[in-house]
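FORM 7B: Structural annotation worksheet

SECTION A. Query
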Amino acid sequence: YVEGAMGADGDCVDVYLGPDESAEWVYVIHQNKGPDYQAFDEDKVMVGFVSADSATKAYIAQYDDKRFFGGMSQMTLQTFSNKIFEQAGKVVNDRTSTPAVC
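SECTION B. Predicted structure
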């Protein structure tokens, strides 16, 4: 998780670490909420993956239903760092900025 950054679910922002320490991109997967998979649940951050495809496959491998996957945003590691630390201590998403501690 990212310490100091709270996600939409009220917990720390979850991060999956891939094998490529030199990967340039961060993939933010927008997870749907079961059981109907129509509403946004939270974001999962994929760092260290060589491509969007490899990040998606690693994410989907952790779940029993592909409908949890609700899309993905891609940004540079620097952009991600700037965004998440600008909002440190707040819920990290575009829907709210409620103060929080993680």
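SECTION C. Observations
The first strand starts at residue 2 and ends at 6. The first helix runs from residue 52 to 60.

SECTION D. Sign-off
Analyst initials: ____
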